[in-house]
């Protein structure tokens, strides 16, 4: 049974930890981007293409080798201000530059540090990634024990 993404986001909005991972295969990445843009349009959320940010901002691209999870955390906090939903698309390239310990720190941040009880982290956070064995092996759960990692195919289409 397909989930309604808007009902799902409402449910996550009631949780303390509001960070999500949406993923799909490489071939369907454009569909995930479109899906994410539609979510943001319908909810007045903020959509941000992380790869485009790095390409279009020389400061970020110059810092790519030193743009570790701590800097991404600051970036996410800054861009989540003034919105209830921040959807970060095409983040894979950044994770691909990190060592395992950096990736682990980032996934730990998504699991239990993007804390809705903190003023700077009130927004729901969605990170869009390509499906990988690493993503599929993660366990990031809500307070009812349901996964906060969802495949694009888990959701019904939105018009």
Q: Give the averaged pLDDT, no decimals.
A: 94
**Biggest β-sheet: strands ordered side by side in the sheet:** 2-3-4-1-5
Radius of gyration: 15 Å
Could you state the order of secondary-structure elements as H and E?
HEHEHHHEHHEHE
What does this structure look like?
By secondary structure, the chain is an alpha/beta fold. 44% of the residues lie in helices and 16% in strands. The protein has helices at residues 5-13, 29-43, 50-56, 58-62, 69-80, 92-95, 100-112, 133-137; strands spanning 19-24, 46-49, 85-89, 124-130, 149-151. A five-stranded parallel β-sheet has the order 2-3-4-1-5, with helices on both faces. The mean pLDDT is 94.
Question: Characteristics of this structure?
Answer:
159 residues; alpha/beta; Rossmann fold; five-stranded parallel β-sheet; 8 helices; 44% helix; globular
Q: What is shown here, in short?
A:
This protein has helices at 5-13, 29-43, 50-56, 58-62, 69-80, 92-95, 100-112, 133-137, and strands at residues 19-24, 46-49, 85-89, 124-130, 149-151.
List the helices and strands and how they pair.
Layout: H1 5-13, E1 19-24, H2 29-43, E2 46-49, H3 50-56, H4 58-62, H5 69-80, E3 85-89, H6 92-95, H7 100-112, E4 124-130, H8 133-137, E5 149-151
